Amino acid sequence: MIDKIKAFDYMLQLFEEWRDSHEELKNKPLSKLTALKLLFLTAAPKEDGGDNLLDIFNNFYAMQYGPVESDVYNAIQANMLPSYIAEYRSIERRKECIDFPSEYKGPEYEPIQNAVKELRTKNENLIELNAFELVEITHKWNSWNLAMNFAEFMGQLSAKMSTVSIEEDSNKRFSLTD
Question: Which is it for the CA torsion 124, 10, 98, 107, positive or negative?
Answer without folding.
Answer: negative
